[in-house]
Write a structure and sequence with these properties.
The complex is a heterodimer of chains A (162) and B (125).
Chain A: H1 8-22, H2 27-43, H3 57-84, E1 93-98, H4 104-116, E2 120-125, E3 131-136, H5 142-161
Antiparallel strand pairs in A: 1-3, 2-3
Chain B: H1 2-29, H2 33-63, H3 69-95, H4 97-102
The chains are: A mainly alpha (162), B mainly alpha (125).
Amino acid sequence: MRHLLPHPLLSVVVAFVWIGLANSLSAGNLLLGAGLGVLIPLYTRRYWPGRVTIKRPLRVLEYFAIVAWDILVSNVQVAGLILFRSGPKLRSVFVSVPLELRTPEAIAVLTGTITLTPGTVSADLSADGRAVLVHCLDAADPDAVVRTIKSRYERRLKDIFE
Amino acid sequence: MAHLSDIVVAGLILVGSFFLLVGSLGLATLPDLMRRLHAPTKATTLGIGALLIASTVHFTVATGTPSLHEVLITLFLFITAPVSAHMLAKAHILRHPDLQARLPVPDNSGWATVTPPPEDACEPR
């Protein structure tokens, strides 16, 4: 089983993506999706040395909901900044956010989330992978940004992945 | 029913177009690269997202079968936009030594773009 399905989660994702792309639930597509779900993880196995573990699957839904809401809010905020405060009045600043997360997948999700959410873009990781460089578009209090990232996203990702 | 879905689709297209316009405006008018990155990573993702939801609603109602392509496009977009923004930011840092000097310094390390990784960085788990 371990040899045939090195990454069960990846297999499921590949199968779902195939069915979504084909946009049909016919028997042929289900079979093809299942086949690809087995073959692609086998073929790309060497690029996935570790194994992604999701400790609390229900928390993933909670996380998605929070991030979706924050993306909505961040869009309105950034649109407002662009339209009404653009130019030198923006207090843009780089901040360094120390990371408690250690799994690469969790850090990747966190940096992606930072970029998609209010007024922040992740710009770089530290060489040892223990801090992330974040650029804030307009931050009156850079420490508050760090606290928000850690309490709102990192804590939840730690629950999910570690 | 058709009327209701038409109103929803039209509203979503308007919202999407507005955010795409603002995103493009930000890309054109913000003063430097790092600030410009904020516009396309956020304003445009929501703009495209709204347009794709409009497309899902329209084709689901028009054909009677749920249309899921758009969900996947949205998902791929939300996964890839931060990655390209990250790479652009790294390229920007690499090409501007004056900026490197002004960055905050992480504990016991440097930023990956300018500092080589430590010896044990690729340790298998």
